[in-house]
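Dear colleague,

Thank you for sharing your sequence with our group. We've completed the structure prediction you requested, and as agreed, I am returning the results in plain text so they can be pasted directly into your records. Please verify that the sequence below matches your submission; if there's any discrepancy, let me know and we will rerun it promptly.
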Amino acid sequence: MNRRLRRKIKRLRQQPIRLVEQKDSFTDEEVVKLSQCLDQYILVAQKFLLS
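Please find the predicted structure tokens below.
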């Protein structure tokens, strides 16, 4: 996995955590969107590792 992708995932992992603390909700629309975005990057990383 390249460094840019790894850094992006690392940054994205922290954002939903902070947002949940602010919103006090795991189901807030913004939290869900960030989580889905992170999921997409993780899928890309997994495909990269498997190829």
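Summary note from our side: The radius of gyration is 12 Å.

Kind regards,
the structure core
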